[in-house]
Design a protein that fits this description.
- By secondary structure, the protein is an alpha/beta fold.
- The chain has three domains: 40-132; 140-361, no CATH class; 376-600, Rossmann fold.
- It has 25 helices and twelve strands.
- A hairpin with a 2-residue loop joins strand 11 (572-577) and strand 12 (580-585).
- The relative contact order is 0.09.
Length: 604
């Protein structure tokens, strides 16, 4: 239910589709440019350079007049010329293997100096191809089959690009679950909510990444088939020659990308939850993803800095551990973690982050059974935000089956007080205690089953979801038995239930929000400006609905500047005077208006 809502929100966001199109374009670059890859093409370039140099310096003499080094060079030139003249890949491989083997002997004896690692990798590549019997050797990106194309496409893109979907998903999901939103109000235990947020980010990020890889992958599959699992790949890793296959690389790379995405998801969700800052986690994750591109955080820097060495940076350069078709010469694959090591590092960091998350989301145990006080009670409280205390409330008690009004000018702290009463913003209460039917607001999931805040503005509504989708989520999340069809019919909102809320007028949104509040079946409803933007007929309909809920035994606290309606709806009023909450008894709408004028405008 919770994950389903979050995934709907992500998939309907335009930024997701833009990101997917950008990924698809970036990963299709090899197709557009059809770049040559390592294999016969580059090998022949190296051999041709050697032959040209040999012909330039070779003396015009018979073989008996050549020194041992010159004889060795002549033998190398013979193998190189044979490879260059080969008409088939098999003939090329046979001559190339002899060329690189003889070149390796020269490196061992010291008669040849240069890039021995690349030579050894080339020799291993040729031997593996020869022994495997594979004769279909791709020469350019357009020749790559499916198994080889995807790693190659990821390797040719910036290292951070495959992780952008997970960063974007984390921003969208954390934004959709920030305090005050509908998802944040759902009565879900905090740690379970954290797990569901992480799962939603991983699922959405993985879907975006696969969708971005799909066009190029489908093109390669249609043109060149799936490829041979045993196609050999050779590269140097940590100074040692590594030989693997296209199938192993494909699997290891996907696992490495998923590991990196999981680490981003967990880091983003936990840090944002712990700091109560939506962007704190995604920003920290973005720094980790971008770090491998910074010279300061290169392998040499990591080797000399113990603190940097503790960071899981290799997880975000998976291609350096897995290799890919066309991956060498191997100048940049000199060090780093192997794929198994990457998974181990990821699991260790995920475990640490989840431990932090469990601590950050724990709810303190309430000593003994909850007191059987029936009512919403705020005791000896002061309310504020940040480092500022703006209201010294004293106490407020809302008994079952009552309706109370909250009256004060704009900017006096009404919304801050209502947010404090909702339990969704625990830092709003600077001192004192808040409980509903004896359940402390610190027990957030249980408290949320009792108290629901319908915020002013559109914070409760997601622009891309329809009204009926909001109501269905509320009914399922709060396990409500409300008859949605009957409720919508009584409020007159049935005709536009299928419209996205971004297309609804202000008045329509107000009625949808009221329907959502009623649908929770919470015994205590806090309504912030529920009548704003309604025409007289709709105001009467909404007022009738609120009276009906009070008659059923629910308690309603209403903040409004429409004093006539407020006087008709409520039994008592709370005024905010000089930062203090003052309770007053209702007599008539005229008295309420006069009381308001006497309280707030007498000094003008």
């Amino acid at each position: 239910m919770y994950c389903r809502l979050l995934l709907k929100l992500i998939l309907r966001d335009k930024a997701v589709w833009i990101c997917t199109l950008v990924l698809a374009a970036a990963f299709s670059v090899p197709i557009a440019f059809n770049s040559p890859i390592y294999g016969p093409f580059f090998m022949k370039q190296g051999m041709q350079s050697f032959v040209n140099a040999f012909n330039t310096r070779a003396p015009q003499a018979s073989g008996t007049d050549l020194s041992p080094e010159q004889q060795n060079d002549a033998e190398l030139a013979r193998y190189a010329n044979a490879a260059l003249a080969a008409q088939t890949d098999a003939a090329f491989l046979d001559s190339a293997e002899s060329y690189y083997a003889l070149m390796g002997e020269g490196f061992q004896s010291g008669s040849i100096v240069g890039d021995q690692e690349t030579n050894d990798a080339a020799l291993a590549y040729c031997r593996a191809l020869s022994s495997s019997g594979i004769t279909d050797i791709p020469a350019s990106a357009n020749d790559l089959p499916f198994l080889s194309f995807l790693p190659y496409a990821i390797a040719t893109a910036p290292s951070f690009l495959p992780f952008i979907p997970f960063l974007l998903s984390s921003i969208l999901v954390l934004g959709a679950t920030r305090p005050g939103t509908l998802a944040a109000k759902a009565p879900v235990p905090k740690f379970r909510r954290l797990i569901q947020i992480v799962f939603s980010i991983i699922a959405a990020g993985t879907a975006m990444l696969l969708a971005g890889l799909a066009p190029g992958g489908i093109y390669a599959l249609a043109l060149n088939g799936s490829g041979q699992i045993g196609y050999p790949i050779a590269f140097f890793h940590d100074g040692a020659l590594t030989t693997t296959t296209a199938g192993n690389v494909f699997t290891a790379l996907l696992l490495a990308l998923l590991a990196g995405g999981t680490l981003i998801s967990v880091c983003s969700a936990v840090l944002s939850t712990a700091t109560r800052r939506v962007l704190a986690g995604p920003l920290a994750s973005a720094l980790l993803v971008a770090a491998p591109a910074f010279p300061l955080l290169s392998d040499s820097a990591l080797g000399h800095n113990a603190v940097l060495g503790l960071l899981p940076l290799p997880v975000f350069s998976p291609i350096e551990a897995t290799g890919y078709v066309g991956c060498f010469p191997t100048e940049f694959i000199g060090s780093g973690s192997g794929s198994a090591s990457m998974l181990a590092v990821t699991l260790a960091y995920v475990a640490v982050f989840f431990t932090v998350g469990a601590v950050a989301t724990r709810s303190p145990k309430q000593p003994g059974p909850a007191k059987k006080h029936h009512g919403l009670e705020l005791l000896d409280a002061s309310v504020g935000y940040g480092s500022t205390t703006i209201l010294s409330i004293g106490s407020l008690f809302l008994s079952p089956g009552t309706a109370a009004g909250l009256v004060a000018p704009n900017g006096s702290g009404k919304t801050t007080l209502l947010e404090a009463l909702s339990g969704q913003f625990p830092t709003r209460i600077r001192s004192g205690s808040l409980a509903a039917d004896g359940i402390s607001q610190r027990r957030s999931a249980e408290f949320a089953e009792l108290v629901y805040l319908s915020s002013s503005g559109s914070a409760d509504l997601y622009p891309t979801l329809s009204a009926i989708e909001h109501l269905a989520f509320v009914r399922e999340a709060w396990k409500s038995a409300t008859d949605i069809d009957s409720l919508c019919s009584s409020l007159g909102i049935s005709p536009y239930l299928d419209k996205p809320t971004r297309k609804l007028s202000t008045g329509m949104k107000q009625q949808v929000k009221l329907a959502m509040a009623i649908s929770t079946d919470c015994p205590y409803l806090i309504l912030d400006e529920p009548l704003n933007g309604l025409d007289p007929g709709k105001r009467k309909t909404s007022c009738d609905a609120m009276r009906s809920e009070v008659a059923r035994g629910r308690s309603v606290l209403i903040s409004s500047h429409l004093l006539d309606d407020l006087a008709d709806l409520t039994n008592s009023f709370y005024f905010i005077e000089a930062g203090t909450l003052v309770e007053k008894i209702k007599s008539s709408s005229q008295t309420l208006k006069q009381e308001y004028l006497d309280t707030y405008e007498r000094g003008e």
